[in-house]
Amino acid sequence: MAYRETPQVRARKDSVRIAILEAARLLLGQGGFRAAQMNAVAATAGIATGTIYRYFPTQTELFAEVFRSNSQREVEAMLQAAAGLGGSASRLRRALRMFISRALRNRRLAYALIAEPVDAQIEAERLRYRRAYAKVLELLVLEGIAGGEFVSQEADITAAALVGVLGEALLGPLLHAAPASGESSADSIINLCLRAVGAKERSHE
User: Fold this and answer.
1) Taking CA 128 as the corner, what is the angle to CA 124 and CA 130, rounded to the nearest 5 degrees?
2) What is the predicted pLDDT for the residue at 184?
3) What average pLDDT does this structure show over 137-148?
């Protein structure tokens, strides 16, 4: 008879896996991928280093999963901000502000997700999530064009460019800017993006 895990065993395994991912995320937010070495993750999670390898055979696989789980949170936050009432320009502004404000609240983690040099497997995850962000923005741009709020344009190209703007424009604030300058940086980036889509008038949040 094949062995079947009991619900208790599965729950315990799930709990350990979550603890590993949360420990890696915490270390990533403190010092980037370099800080999230396996022994440091194990110590932070309160487990033996060997235990991690039962869940993640390599450090790259652990990093890729941390990257996926954190990036998915950001995509969902952007989607939530883009939903609801208001015109396309207002909703685009909310989505952009959500992305930027979350990045500025945890600058070191955001830098790791957006720009820190990584190996090919993690870079592939980064590109996949850049496309996910772009898809959220593309739908808003399409709605804005259809509603007459934005000028006619190639929405997919514009959305990809907006993701690029977010990544590049945030590098300075994430690495060097004082916390108090974050709001000013956010406003500048958002206004640039609204001009890029040809918003016909400034929409207030």
Assistant:
1) 115
2) 81
3) 97
